[in-house]
């Protein structure tokens, strides 16, 4: 049974485990969806993470103990329905070029790989969305193959171009907008993932899968990509 702890005046944290596990995100996402459907009148916000779900609720409608009691009932119902939420796969085209892969040349040297081998390793699997980061469109994806894992940069960059695809330890991600960051940049997508397009708010959800599709330089440019 997941563990519930208070996380402030009107919020709780529900821990589904104590370490990152590929089996957790889908279960957490499924339960978040269940809470939204069954307790939408009192739930204000839901924030899934690697091992937990942060839930804010309306104290004007329900008190702490009654809310926890109802959540516990939902958890009991959820134990046998973890597979009810169907996962979807989001395909993202990526140009793996040295002009846009700011750390690609260094990675290839350190890992003793040629570019084609790296592209094959990074793009050959589907990545699980473990959590959503500083933006609703910044998805933490894993697990990256050990052959291409790299630690974060010692000194983060002040500006990373929107669409940049990065690697940090066992995770990979896409920067949806221009921002600072310390991930190793290995490519870029021409797709606009910024919140200028409001449809992107629900682009990624915990428990989804992401597949990177390699594209050529010409395909990248013809799709609106910038160098």
Task: Describe the structure using short key phrases.
5 helices, Cyclophilin, 30% strand, 227 residues, Gyrase A, domain 2, seven-stranded mixed beta sheet, 13 strands, 2 domains
Q: Would you mind describing this structure in some detail?
A:
This protein is an alpha+beta fold and 227 residues long. The protein folds into 2 domains: 3-78, Gyrase A, domain 2, CATH 3.30.1360.40; 89-222, Cyclophilin (Beta Barrel). Helix content is 23%, strand content 30%. The chain is built from 5 helices and 13 strands. The strands form 3 sheets. It has a 7-stranded mixed beta sheet. Strand 6 and strand 7 form a beta hairpin. Helix 1 crosses helix 2. The longest helix has 15 residues, at 24-38. The protein is elongated. The chain starts with a strand and ends in a 5-residue tail after the last helix. The mean pLDDT is 92.
Going by CATH, the architecture of the largest domain would be Beta Barrel
Order of helices and strands: EEHEEHEHHEEEEEEEEH
**What structural class is derived from the secondary structure elements?**
alpha+beta
Tell me the number of helical segments per DSSP (H or I, 4 or more residues long).
Answer: 5
Ranges where pLDDT stays below 50 over 5 or more residues in a row are none
Largest sheet: 7 strands, mixed
CATH superfamily of the largest domain: Cyclophilin-like
